[in-house]
Amino acid sequence: MVGPAQTHRLESGGLIDRSAPLGFRFDGKSYAGFQGDTLASALIANGVKLVGRSFKYHRPRGILTAGSEEPNALVELRTGAQLN
After folding, report:
1. Contact (CB, 8 A) for 43 and 5
2. Rounded to whole angstroms, how far apart are CA atoms 80 and 27?
3. Three-state secondary structure readout of 26-71
4. Can you tell me whether residue 78 is helix, strand or coil?
5. What is the structure's pLDDT at 5?
6. For residue 72, which of 48, 36, 45 has the smallest C-alpha distance?
7. How many CA atoms, within 13 angstroms, populate the side-chain half-sphere of residue 33?
8. What is the dihedral of CA 32, 68, 58, 44, to 10 degrees?
9. How many other C-beta atoms can be found within 10 angstroms of the C-beta atom of residue 5?
10. How far apart are the C-alpha atoms of 38 and 63, rounded to whole Å?
């Protein structure tokens, strides 16, 4: 079952493992995801729309590509993070 914070996630299907939940922090807030999620898919499932701002005019930027080539967000992995 999808938790209340993940209102934008389908109840079934996809390539995530719903039996393996995980937690993460983004922009100082805690969120939940599942094994197999990308950062983009977990943020979208949690209703996060703003992932950065443009350098020059600071206009809001959302998730565009949902892949590692995402041009609108810079991400830093810290202690406890595991690269797969």
Report:
1. no
2. 16
3. ECCEEEEEEECCCHHHHHHHCCCCCCEECCCCCCEECCCCCCCCCC
4. coil
5. 66
6. 48
7. 21
8. -30
9. 13
10. 12
**What was the pLDDT predicted at 19?**
94
pLDDT in tens, the chain (84 residues): 445 568 788 888 889 999 999 999 888 899 999 999 988 899 999 999 998 888 889 999 888 876 667 676 677 777 766 665
pTM for the full model?
0.77
pLDDT in the model for residue 67: 67
Asked if residue 49 lies in contact with residue 64, where contact means CB atoms within 8 angstroms, the answer is no
The closest alpha carbon to 52, from 23, 28, 75, 69, belongs to: 75
Residue keyed to tokens 């719903």: 18
